[in-house]
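Thread: Newbie trying to understand structure tokens

Hi all, I'm a second-year student working on a class project, and my supervisor (Dr. K.) asked me to get a predicted structure for one chain before our next meeting. I've only ever worked with sequences, so writing a 3D structure as a token string is new to me. If someone could post the tokens and maybe explain what I'm looking at, I'd be very grateful. Here's the chain:
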Amino acid sequence: MNIVAALFLLLDVLPSQQFEPGSAAQKAANIASIKQQRGDLDGALTDLNRAIRLDPKMPELYNNRGTVEQKKGDLASALADFNRAIQLDPKFAFGYANRGNIERANRNFDEAIENYNRAINLTFGNDARIYVVRGLAWRAKRAFERARADFNHAILLDPKLAEAYAARASGESDQADFGAAASDYDRAIKLDAKLENAYLGRAHVEKLQGKLDKAAADITEAIEINPRNGAAYNDRGNLRRLRSDFQSALADYNRAIELNRDNSLPYTNRAVVYFLQTDWPTALANFSAAADRSGDQAYSRLQIWATRVQMGQVQAADQELWQYFEHRKNPTNRDWPVRIFLFLHGDITSTNFLPETNLDEPGKISNTASMEWFTSGADFAALAEANTPDPTSDSTVPSSSSQRKLDRGRICEAWFYAGMKSLSTGDRAAAADCFRNAIKSGETSWIEYQLAQAELKFLDGSN
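---
Reply by user tm_fold:
Sure, no problem. This is what the structure looks like when written as tokens:
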């Protein structure tokens, strides 16, 4: 049986295999493939179910159904079908490649790499695309050298594979090599002007470089390619919010929510706009909606607390926040929101919580000793008493640039919430000092940076 198949990198799906006309099952599979290409995923699934009933021993059919299920977001069913395809044919390379994509989507990166290795050893050894997806798994593990080696090998095998340049650019961006990243994104777009993720990746680099207009233009280009990408609308809304174009930002967040009502991010970002516009009730409603849709509600709960404080509901804010964190399961040594809560609750002193910033060089941290993570504990008392940072393996340590950004972002958050705590007790002068220190972090893209700026304006306007 001749099979036509290829790795589809941007959607993490190996497209359906098309079969030469023959059996009724093969005919149904080919019809399904045509429907999938047209975007009729439900119709494709119906035809593949019929094909499998006609020939339940053909691994290619399970592979095809798995790709449709993955496109529909049903990763569990897709994984089951790829497992079944491999069970029927342990040398079915497509099954391993697709199972690797599912494992990567589920953040099981070691399992993903193992599956990609099997696919490479079977039939994909000279296919550049398998090295790209394996490189993406290495990148997710912060194993940047291995990721780059895979991306380079993919380019060596196929110098015209746009996805390989875009993937290499993502790793370069992670390591703050923005010049190299921009060059690779440019190359990817030159090779494939419809490569949506290349525009989004280049926009991310441009945003980090402060080129907000160019970033917005690239995201707009990506939206024109795929008007149903809610994340792109959310990202463009963030850029417009940074430029204080609040109405356009709200329009983008609204569209992102229309496309995916279960994503918490546009609700959070929409809440920030309403907060900046002093519409506290609507901000509170949106932060609450974000909490309802978030797997980890911690940040949403902190933002709800800050909004209630701004509304003068200090007692209710404290009680609500305590109830949430009191019942929070398994706080860990990396649980930075818990540390913020412990400070707000009075279990950690300002001296042990607040970092120092270099007042002469905004954004430069002079001392981060007080920012150490706690070791894990069974309760808040254990967290409050612990004082040893958690060691991490080399393969999971963030790059130095991303770690510095994380440190600065947490410094911004620390000072912002310290300011809100002072505000809750009526100490406006101390609050203003804290908000100024939050701004000195230099992390303009963090929500708390914008909120700190807004709080200073509110304080100045009420004097």
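A couple of things are worth pointing out once you decode it. Residues 330-463 form one domain. The chain has a mean pLDDT of 85. Feel free to ask follow-ups in this thread.
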